[in-house]
Amino acid sequence: MVSDINPRDGLQAIENPHAGLLAIDTHVDIPWPEGPSPFEDGPRCVDLPKLRQGGVAAVCFVAYVPQSHRDAAGHLAAAGRTRAMLHTIAAMAPPDGSGGILTRTADEIEAAYAAGKPGIIPAIENGYGIGRDLSLLDEFADLGARYITLTHNGHNEIGDAAIPLRNLGDDDMQYGGLSDFGQSVIDRMNERGVMVDISHAAKSTMMQAVQRSRAPVLASHSCMRALCEHKRNLDDEQLELIAATGGLVQITMVSNFLRAKARSTDVTVADIADHIDYAVQRMGVDHVGIGTDFDGGGGVKGFTHIGQAPNLTAELARRGYGREELAKIWGGNVLRLLRRAEEVAAASRTPANA
Ligand SMILES: [Zn+2]
Fold first, then answer.
1. Residue of 325, 307, 309 lying closest to 317 (CA atoms)
2. pLDDT per residue over 261-273, tens digit each?
């Protein structure tokens, strides 16, 4: 890749290729029901001091709901947990300005970055949280959720997952992709500017979601099947469809998605860079980004917490990625996707489309 250093920040960039990047991590979990404070440099892989240390501007923090029974009681509990977690995520941005800033739009992320404040982007991991109720999707969008991972492990009301859960009675597939309800969920997500996250979804669900969605889809935390055979990883056909429709794959740091049968202590930032290289060669640099899955299983040698983000950037720079490419991979691409989702939502509100 051709180096493209802006002379304005050239010297700084040569010394530290991470300096001056608007970096966004699209997938980080929060401890639940309670855990160490996000405001102090503690045991979490991602807290506000470590974001500053690592030069990472904004993070999608997820309200993660494990798949369980798909009955009224299960759905009620899942909605309650999603709601409570979204409030906890919003509390990382207290009104007195002492923490992060709740960033609901691409413009707000850029403004928070310009103000030197960590951007807090709420998201939901597992559409189980809305059960069979689109009004919950509206409620959670109002709370700021900017993407919903359609499924986690285990099928839900929206569609089939890549990994069925036998203990919940799952067959290999239930719908052969998206359910009818799942189609209406994607329509409503488009109307609300909520991005469609296809990580964890079955390939059939993912392919149908790409066809259905009017905004490009996102894989918030996934790796390359060609480099590591794992059901959670995306194969070349999936990559080609995502790229052809303007979507984005965010490479994750989960060691057994990066290298088969490897011990997490043997996997390094070079393995992450291998997956990024492959994704870039296959899809182009406009379709690749980073979603660590920190505090949810992510972390490799040399990148065990978000404060070490510059180590990955240094590895990419060593491999020849220039300033412009690093800016796209670290945040520019996801900002483009957010803006596109916002445009699709705005267009669906215009009288012409009513
Ligand atoms: Zn996940």
1. 325
2. 887 789 999 999 9
